[in-house]
Amino acid sequence: MSNKFLSTTSAFLLSTSMLVADVPKVTVDIAPVHSLVSSIMEGVGKPDLIMPAGASPHEYQLKPSNAKSLEDADVVFWIGEDLTPWLENGLDSLAKNASITSLLGVDGIELLSFREGALFEAHDHGDHDDHDDHDDHDHGKKKHDDHDDHDDHDDHDDHEGHAHGEHDPHAWLSPKIAKVWLNSIAAKLSEVDPDNAATYFSNAKSARDNIDALVSEVNSILDPIREKKFVVFHDAYQYFEKDFGISASGAISLGDASDPSPARLAEIRKRVVDEAVECVLAEPQYKQGLVKAVVEGTNANTAVIDPLGVKLETGPSLYENLIRNLATNLAKCF
To answer: Has residue 14 been placed in a domain?
Structure first.
């Protein structure tokens, strides 16, 4: 083998490694956000994912591998402390040199307040605070109580004492919001890595176009069941409901997925019986026995829906598959 060939090969490998080294190290919190960031970074690099499939974002604890990822990160995207208060301290202590974006604090989205009580009225989406003021969501401010304090929930109309913030954090279930986030993610990555800005913005446009097609598809799936009554496992779906013009009749558990009180379970079961609710939805990582207690002796069907994509392959396609599966499994429940 000639010395010329060896030197050319070495130069190529060196230049390639330098290019790879220049790609920012990006860390994200949950799989749906990882999917959106992956779609923006396609052809450039891959983000790290903190929370593994099957874990609850409300209760997860950082592992040593997560700490290393945060320490090495140039950029961090996370939903915000309203979803993962356990991550805030890790960001403050570990990701000191990273650019940190709380997606709940991005301009141009409308955050929804948690719904009060176990029962919801149809089309209960009209009166929500406008999201012009984002100061509440700076990751340095704390407004969460200890997640263990769930025993006093006999008065289920009062959310005080639970580990969620002012707003419902499950905003990734709105494709409309996801499109805004794609722009914000591309802009932040371009700021940190201007050499790849054209790729980031081109990928963002493709991802937004894909979401537009997805929304049309999901509306077609939901059209036959749009007026049907269903109950969800925990109050995580109002962004999805608002985008697609459907309304849950209630939720077995609170928005932080804490165990419901016996009074709340009884209230949900009464609604299922009295209003002949046809579908009660479970989730893969939570107690199936609670759903059984609600539907036993009724004619309600059950199905499993997954707001996090715990059984889906991570990567650019996960977000679209997650939204599509929500609609498909809900429609199949009737």
So the answer is: no
In whole angstroms, what is the distance from residue 163 CA to residue 286 CA?
A: 17
Give the Cα separation of 299 and 150 in Å (integer).
Answer: 31
Tell how strand 75-78 and strand 250-253 pair up: unpaired
Distances (CA, A) of 54 to 36, 95, 307, 309: 19, 25, 11, 9
CATH at 200? 3.40.50.1980
| Per-residue model confidence as pLDDT tens digits over 39-91 | 999 999 999 999 987 788 888 989 999 999 999 999 999 999 999 999 999 99
State which residues form the domain around 115: 23-127+152-332
The answer to whether 192 touches 75, Cβ cutoff 8 Å, is: yes
The structural domain count of the chain equals 1
For the chain, what is the largest distance between any 2 Cα atoms, rounded to a whole number of angstroms?
A: 84
pTM of the model: 0.82
Query: Position 31: which residue type?
Result: A
> From residue 246, how far is each of 70, 170, 257, 271 by CA, in Å?
38, 16, 21, 18
